[in-house]
């Protein structure tokens, strides 16, 4: 069993194989959470059971082999959820990252639509500043975690970037996007992901 802490957020995790005794592992996890709760009570702190979540990461083809188990924490019973949010990034149980991409796409289109309403009243520079602040910042955040997602999902992110670029440059849909992105000094989404990954590998 391993744990990871960030500020007041604590995550406890373990690796369980399909043929392992899942009930035994869950019992150990419940005991661990009980010890944490007792320690916090002793030190005048409180474990927020309402915000305690359980997720089981598993490949899609092994989904049927995962037992439907629950955790008991104090008076609460915690069932497994399909996704969790960690430092602003959604992780789904099969690590497809589709929930995270959907969140980025929804937020991106929302802000692009709002900026579009005032586009005729602001300069290109001001528009680019707004887009960088509200749209591309979301495309960039945690994007190294999206390496390896399927092409269809990646294309959804690319469409957001393309729409943002056309908004800034006031170009139409029929115009080829590559020179528009180059003019803004933007890498296509998948290229940006791969570039950051290679930089990380080089730094290790």
UniProtKB/TrEMBL annotation:
This is Reverse transcriptase domain-containing protein. It comes from Mytilus coruscus (Sea mussel).
């Amino acid at each position: 069993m391993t744990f990871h802490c960030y500020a007041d957020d604590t995550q406890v995790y373990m690796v369980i194989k399909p043929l392992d005794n899942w009930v035994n592992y869950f019992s150990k996890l419940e005991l661990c959470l009980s010890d944490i709760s007792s320690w916090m009570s002793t030190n005048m702190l409180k474990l927020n059971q309402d915000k305690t979540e359980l997720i089981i990461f598993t490949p899609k083809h092994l989904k049927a082999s995962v037992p439907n188990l629950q955790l008991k924490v104090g008076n609460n019973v915690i069932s497994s959820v399909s996704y969790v949010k960690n430092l602003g990034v959604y992780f789904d149980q099969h690590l497809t990252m589709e929930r995270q991409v959907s969140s980025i796409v929804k937020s991106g289109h929302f802000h692009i639509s709002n900026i579009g309403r005032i586009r005729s009243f602001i300069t290109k520079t001001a528009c680019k500043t707004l887009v960088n602040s509200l749209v591309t910042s979301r495309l960039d955040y945690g994007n190294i975690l999206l390496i390896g997602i399927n092409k269809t999902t990646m294309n959804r992110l690319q469409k957001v970037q393309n729409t943002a670029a056309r908004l800034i440059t006031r170009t139409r849909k029929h115009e080829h996007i590559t020179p528009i992105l180059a003019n803004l000094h933007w890498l296509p989404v998948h290229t940006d992901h791969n570039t950051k990954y290679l930089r990380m590998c080089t730094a290790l």
